[in-house]
Amino acid sequence: MEAERKLTEQEAAQIVGVSVHCLRAWRWRKQGPKYFKLGSCVRYTLRDLNAYLESHLVDPEAKRKVQPGRRHARKAA
Question: Quick check: pTM over 0.70?
Answer without folding.
Answer: yes
